[in-house]
Design a protein that fits this description.
The structure is a single chain. Helices cover about 5% and strands about 55% of the residues. It contains one helix and 14 strands; from the N terminus they run H-E-E-E-E-E-E-E-E-E-E-E-E-E-E. The chain has a single domain (about 1-209), classed as Porin. The protein is globular, with a radius of gyration of 18 Å. Mean pLDDT is about 85; it is low at about 100-105. The two termini are about 35 Å apart. The protein has one helix spanning about 1-15; strands at about 20-30, 30-35, 35-40, 45-50, 55-65, 75-80, 85-95, 115-120, 125-130, 135-145, 150-155, 165-180, 185-195, 200-209.
Length: about 210
């Protein structure tokens, strides 16, 4: 898997003679992913991506603003849009966190790979992610009711206390823009997240720039 990711990344770079690029970041009060909080402080979450045709490669990170917080993350990914669905290969790392059980502290490590797909079934979106070595499966469905975005996800192994498949993520989110000047509005978003498996609840507020 290491050589496959390296080859795909090299091929992708070589095809980017004509490409689009995006760069941005979110600032969030807490980093909560699939019903689990990482770290105990606010996080900055930068991302950069390059696209050519239906192919996208990029990097995304989540870095704690507290120097004593070990919940930081850095991911590399390759994604391809098939039209009816997307296919993504992601390499997850947690820099400086030796306690990470499924995501090792080095790049291109086999245990850090997740294959995922996302597609829409009418107004309902479906995402499926599978870690290739540890066999952790996560399935999430999402839909909107007016300005309210709803997501319900379940997983097994690392996602639940006993390792059996169970719902571990129920999220209710919304967003708005706050007008700062005549030409600039600040986008903010918030979500309430509940994990039925652990009975943990989180309230996250963030902004994008």
């Amino acid at each position: 898997m290491k050589s496959l990711f390296t080859l795909l990344f090299a091929v992708s770079i070589s095809t980017l003679s004509t490409f689009g690029q995006e760069i941005g970041a979110d600032l969030v009060s807490r980093y909560v992913w699939r019903g689990t909080q990482f770290g105990d402080s606010a996080h900055i979450q930068p991302g950069i991506s390059y696209t050519t045709g239906d192919l996208e490669i990029g990097a995304w990170g989540s870095f704690a603003l507290s120097g004593n917080d070990g919940g930081s993350e850095l991911d590399l990914y390759i994604s391809y849009d098939l039209g009816f669905a997307s296919l993504t290969l992601t390499n997850y790392t947690f820099p400086g966190d030796a306690s990470a059980s499924i995501i090792p502290d080095d790049f291109f490590a086999v245990e850090g790979y997740e294959l995922s797909t996302g597609f829409d079934l009418g107004p309902v979106g479906l995402t499926v992610g599978y870690f290739t070595e540890t066999e952790d499966l996560y399935i999430e469905t999402g839909f909107s009711l007016g300005n309210l975005d709803i997501a319900i996800g379940g997983g097994n192994e690392v996602y639940t206390l006993d390792g059996d498949f169970a719902v571990c993520n129920v999220s209710l989110g919304t967003s708005k823009e706050i007008k700062i000047t005549e030409d600039y509005s600040l986008p903010i978003f918030g979500s309430f997240v509940y994990n039925p498996d652990t009975t943990d609840a989180f309230l996250v507020l963030g902004t994008s720039f």
